[in-house]
Specification:
By secondary structure, this protein is mainly β. The chain is built from one helix and 22 strands. The chain has an eleven-stranded antiparallel sheet with strand order 6-5-4-3-2-1-11-10-9-8-7, with no helix packed on it. Strands 17-16-15-14-13-12-22-21-20-19-18 form an eleven-stranded antiparallel sheet, with no helix packed on it. The longest helix has 15 residues.
Length: 366
């Protein structure tokens, strides 16, 4: 009887939570926290979005030390068919690329999010909503009595966690100055192209991988494996990176939906494992491709690939496939806040992985 009462209370709590509907057009000041293997740093900036004008900006400065400032910019100008990215102490280190996809509202994902219960922020209880896409976890915290105003937003991958604290959130069209292209960024002309067949990547698969990670510190390389079993609700990304001057870094993102738990490692010490409850289902890692935009061709080891791109919650996802085999990914990119992880697939097989691929490491069981 007690178990039934507890279950009924839990179900009632989920049903009672009102789903947020965050405005498509807004301007907000933000405090920002970024946690990586090396450090946790803090800063401030703003988020602005103009869905009608097809413009979006995420801009903030982080302070790794008293005398250093890391400038971060993610500017999408769909009206110009361009996007601009910066994650450097040098504001001239701005990267421009063509943008031919759809500009998504930054909180559109909340419509499909799972209610994750209550969280505490500065001693205030918030309703938490969570969604996963392409190996990225998105989470939103709102006050139960004001659900359409974001209080805290998290964006997490195997590499880093970014947390945004909102101040003065105003649901109105931002001024054009918030979307101005910095002088340090160049302009180019976009050429048109026709979309080929959309990829249909299996939901269940196993693959060996080569991995490349780029951040403002360095570019590191490694290898590992990527496996997913959709019916069993299990997923794993595991790889070892080899920095030029440090010990190897073990990176693990293991989702065990069957256990309602997930495990994460991003450290030189494989015993530095973090476990937490998992409230949302395990999603197919390439489900987002159904809504992705074709962005032309890219070259990988002299092979021309068709590239498909999708943006969600400030993260950019891209998959590259050969025109002759659209069910087999060749490369997968995941970029957020100026940090890029590029996964090169080897021996991709659309078969059910072995149970051992999803075993919880001994270091995570204590």
């Amino acid at each position: 009887m007690m178990k039934l009462v507890v279950l009924a209370v839990a179900v009632a709590a989920v049903l009672a939570a009102e789903r947020p509907q965050i405005a498509d057009e807004f301007i907000a000041e933000t405090e920002v926290e970024r946690a990586t293997r090396e450090e946790t740093i803090y800063g401030e900036g703003f988020l602005a979005h103009d869905q009608t004008g097809r413009k979006a900006a995420e801009r903030y400065d982080l302070r790794p030390s008293k005398f250093h400032v890391l400038h971060v910019l993610n500017l999408q100008r769909a009206d110009l068919r361009k996007e601009y990215a910066l994650s450097s102490e040098d504001p001239h280190d701005c990267h421009e690329r063509d943008f031919s996809g759809t500009l998504h509202s930054p909180f559109a994902w909340v419509a499909n999010a799972t209610f994750a219960g209550a969280i505490k922020h500065h001693e205030v209880t918030l309703d938490a909503w969570e969604y996963r896409v392409g190996g990225v976890r998105l989470a939103l915290g709102v006050a139960p009595d004001n659900v359409n105003i974001p209080v805290v937003f998290e964006r997490e991958s195997a590499d880093s966690l970014e947390r945004f604290y909102f101040h003065n959130f105003t649901a109105e069209v931002p001024e054009s100055k918030f979307f101005e292209v910095p002088q340090e960024c160049n302009h180019q002309t976009l050429s048109g192209f026709k979309a080929p067949e959309r990829p249909r990547i299996p939901e269940t698969f196993v693959a060996a991988t080569d991995v490349e990670r780029q951040d403002h510190h360095e570019t590191t390389f490694g290898e590992g494996r990527f496996a997913h079993d959709q019916p069993a609700q299990k997923a794993v990304e595991l790889f070892d990176l080899h920095p030029s001057h440090d010990k190897d870094i073990r990176v693990l993102n293991l989702q065990r939906g069957d256990l309602h738990e997930e495990y994460a490692i991003n450290s030189e010490d494989p015993k530095d494992c973090h476990k937490r409850n998992m409230t949302s289902p395990v999603y197919p890692p390439f489900a987002w491709v159904a809504q992705a935009d074709y962005v032309g061709t890219v070259k990988h080891h002299e092979v021309v690939l068709d590239a498909w791109e999708y943006h969600a919650g400030g993260s950019r996802l891209l998959v590259g496939v050969t025109p002759s085999d659209t069910k087999t990914p060749v490369i997968f990119e995941r970029e957020s806040g100026g940090e890029l992880t590029r996964i090169h697939f080897l021996n991709f097989t659309g078969t059910t992985p072995e149970d051992k691929d999803f075993e919880v490491p001994e270091e995570c069981q204590s």
